[in-house]
Amino acid sequence: MASLGHHPGRVEETVEVRSTTAAERTALKLDEDEPVLVLLRKTTSRAHVPMEVSLMTMREGARLRYEIEVD
């Protein structure tokens, strides 16, 4: 993206635990009562232009690790 002139300026993430959908249970081989961890990430450029939206659905017990560089 940088080669196209787009430089990340802000990343916002929302993390939640919720019940699974039927499709998630099939894909992740989960029982009906097993929850999933859902992470929604929105990245915008320094000019506040949306660059990326990612939705990740993980099994219970997933580990999240964050490293943030502060200027």
Describe this structure in words.
With 71 residues, the chain is mainly beta. It has one domain: 3-Layer(aba) Sandwich (Chorismate lyase), CATH 3.40.1410. It has 1 helix and 3 strands; from the N terminus they run βαββ. The protein is elongated and about 45 Å long. The chain starts with 7 loop residues before the first strand and ends in a 12-residue tail after the last strand. The mean pLDDT is 89.
Brief synopsis:
Helix content is 10%, strand content 44%.
> What is the typical, i.e. mean, pLDDT?
89
The number of helical elements comes to: 1
The appropriate CATH architecture is: 3-Layer(aba) Sandwich
Strand percent estimate? 35-45%
Radius of gyration: 16 Å
Which class do the helix and strand fractions yield?
mainly beta
**Widest beta sheet: strand line-up:** 1-2-3
- List how many beta strands DSSP finds: 3
Output the helix-strand order: EHEE
**Main β sheet profile:** 3 strands, antiparallel
Distance between the termini: 21 Å
CATH superfamily: Chorismate lyase-like
Assign the CATH class.
Answer: Alpha Beta
The shape is elongated
Number of structural units classed as domains: 1
- CATH third-tier fold name: Chorismate lyase
Low-confidence stretches: none
Helix content: under 10%
